[in-house]
Amino acid sequence: MPEGPDKPPRPASAIEQALGGLGGPALTPAGAPVRPWTPPGGLVVPAGPMAGPMNMADPFGGGTFKLSVIDGGLLRVDVVPPNPETYFELSKLPSRVQRRGAFGISFWDLPGVQAIAVERGCTIEYDAKVQDMIDRWHRWCLELEWIKSFAEFPDFHVPGLDIDFLPFQARGVNYGVKIGSFGLFDQMGTGKSIQVMGILFTHRQALGGRIETLLLSPTSVVGDWQAKFRRFAKTEIAVADGSPSKREKVYESKPEFLGLSYDTFMRDVDKIVRHFHPKAVVADEAQRITNRKSKATEKLIEFVDIVQPRYRIPMSGSPIMNITADLWPIMRLISHGLAGEAPRFEKRYTRQKPARWERDAESGKMKPFSQRVGTNKDGTAKMWTPMRIESLDPKKPDDAKLLSELRMKIAPHVIRRLKKDVLKDLPEKMFERIDIRLSKREREVYEELQVRFAEAMAGVSEEDGDAQTTNFLEWFTRAQQICSSLEIVGEGKESSKIDELRAFCEDYAEEQKILIFSRFKEMTTIVCRELKQFKPIHLNGDIPQSKRQPLVDLFQENEDHRLFVSTLKAGGVGLTLTAGSIVVRLDRWVSPAANDQAVDRAHRIGQTRQVTVVDFVVEDSIEERILEILDKKLKMIASLISADDDEEKQERKIVRALLRKQDMLALI
How does pLDDT run across 284-313, given as a tens digit for each residue? Predict the structure, then answer.
């Protein structure tokens, strides 16, 4: 098959700049103080930021910040002479507290203190204890940077594990062991799970041969953790599933390694707290907890606050976050002092704008939408303006300064490597598109749907955004289903896409195994029925967690099974399917990340062949037109999607942001 163009490199987003750039070392920006700062009490488990001595004196003077230690990592800040405006600016820092009659901030917020001092023309004076903390943290960060970027560990081996670590993986293990708690954000397919195993088993040896660990992951990935522990460590992970009483018995047994899905964890967190206090917590696919208001995030933070695990490792492929506010739950999991309070974190490191605008009845001008929520003491209406959060814009000077401050604060606590930078020998991906022409009957059904959609939209006013969105999403889903198979919409069994897929598999399935993904469970069922001669393995959301990994193993190890057929939702994350070298996407979802994750099931460590990605696209259809919009506005779409949102909510966000009524009608 001919090679298609890969996606062009995209500019670094705000979130990637905060993490230290795209794949490279997290370097301090030019002109900034020399790298941030070990918490008091030694260099065992650091969690924060800073720089060496600074003299930021303005000859016209704004005063002096005097920093001393209140206790632990809490620092007292005195402004001399006292200045209410300066204290107000300092109060915006995420970790600000009042303790013992003094204004205090976490050691990790020192970059913010420094930034405010620069803005207000003040000098900073550190007492001996604070300066000692800064000096130690500075040395610590230099050691971490050396490990992350330059260290070599020839023949690196972790006792208890049968793993030959690649050089960058050995650096990841040693970095994680040294810092204790951190975010592992290497790109999908780079072996994050075996790096985490290396970290855990190194700590395990130091702790005398046992390290109670809670491994959290999506349901579809729990089996993958089990398989890796069996293969590389000859160790079993206790998995809690089945009835509530059965799950509680697992917790009561106090296993060394406990594997749970996020859903099970949320249901059972009270029982887990009673019986299981892990020394380490690993949050796999940590994009599940980037919404601080989700139940999973709230319960996980509450859990770690109670049990106080020594090692905390959120892990995920990239990008796991869409706006800078999504960093807060990850940082909060790693360290309370590092994250500070969520509202202040969001206020400092995001931009908040009115969620809606309306036309003023008197002036005719646009103004932020507000609604009445009560009455003030003077009898006037108490109004509330709904706000939306946006990420900082690195192109704006003021936002760039805040991103630089945030980077100094968190950079030592994350590792982020890209496959293209660390896996020089991993085969490249090729992209191909197969265009499909609908049959006469399929086109008739499709045209009928278009007419009904146009009629429905004609009755909706331009201002009724909810009705527009609902009508569009109903048509969008129905149109994609018709493009896939008339059987899904109850109009017969005709499917040009299935006919093309059958011919494709007959051409290639004998020599190469093929992964086939679709949004629709019904479509995966049809594929398995129509292509049963290739003995397809079928995975969807109805398959119990305990039976998923055996299906993966069967595809990986048995040559008779040539196809692995899955819904995007069930098979898009966590699975290792390197036996396949062709990835077929029968339809595309609005989430770019979901589409790319499907590809990365095959294009990952262990793959020895070039991976070919094939998109099946129906000509002159919604599939063709929506892809054009998604490709043009890929960056905007990525910024809209929240990992915690379900599929319908993500679609609604994108439709509202990208499509006006005339744009929707243009897609017909």
Answer: 988 888 888 888 899 999 999 999 999 999
CA distance 586 to 485: 11
User: Which residue is associated with the tokens 């048995």?
Assistant: 558
Q: 519 burial class (0-12, 13-18, 19+ CB within 10 angstroms)?
A: buried
- Pairing of β 238-239 and β 257-261: parallel
Q: What is the pLDDT of residues 418-456, one digit of tens each?
A: 777 776 656 677 788 888 889 999 999 999 988 887 777
Nearest to 579 by CA among 554, 614, 548: 554
Cα→Cα distances 377→55, 181, 374, 384, Å: 49, 49, 10, 16
Q: At what angle do helices 219-228 and 545-557 cross, to 10 degrees?
A: 60
Residue ranges of alpha helices (H) inside 162-218 are: 167-179, 192-206
- Gap between the Cα atoms of 29 and 51, Å rounded: 13
What average pLDDT does this structure show over 32-47? 32
| Burial annotation 78-91 (CB, 10 A radius, 16+ → b, else e) | ebeeeeeebeebbe
Q: Return d(Cα 90, Cα 88) in angstroms, integer.
A: 5
Query: What pLDDT sits at residue 105?
Result: 92
pLDDT of 95-114, one tens digit each?
Answer: 999 887 889 999 999 999 99
If we measure between CA atoms, which residue out of 117, 118, 110, 113 comes closest to residue 135? 110
Amino acid identity at 343: P
Question: Is the alpha carbon torsion for 113, 178, 224, 429 positive or negative?
Answer: positive
Q: With DSSP H G I counted as helix, E B as strand and the rest as coil, what are the percentages for the chain, rounded to 5?
A: 45, 15, 35
Would you call 83 helix, strand, or coil by DSSP? coil
Q: In whole angstroms, give the CA distance from residue 344 to residue 332.
A: 13
H/E stretch holding 594? helix 592-599
Q: Does an H or E element contain 290, and which?
A: none
Q: Looking at the DSSP assignment, which residues form a beta bridge with residue 486?
A: none
What pLDDT digit, counting tens, does each position of 338-350 carry? 999 999 998 898 8
Question: By the 8 A CB rule, do 322 and 297 touch?
Answer: no
> At 180, is the secondary structure helix, strand, or coil?
coil
Six token digits for residue 115: 């930034």
Per-residue pLDDT tens digits for 482-510: 999 999 999 999 999 999 999 889 888 98
pLDDT at 28: 32
- Which positions ≥6 away from 484 have C-beta within 8 Å? 495, 497, 518, 520, 523, 586, 587
Angle at the Cα of 56 from the Cα atoms of 51 and 59, rounded to 5 degrees: 170
Rounded Cα gap, residues 214 and 225, in angstroms: 12
* Confidence at residue 40, expressed as pLDDT on a 0 to 100 scale: 32
Q: What is the reported pLDDT for 49? A: 38
Q: Which residue has the tokens 């023949």?
A: 155
The helix/strand count (H/E) of the chain reads as 26, 24
Q: List the domains of the chain with CATH numbers.
A: 32-150 (no CATH), 154-351+393-422 (3.40.50.10810), 429-666 (3.40.50.300)
Query: Which pLDDT tens digit goes with each residue over 639-648?
Result: 555 545 555 5
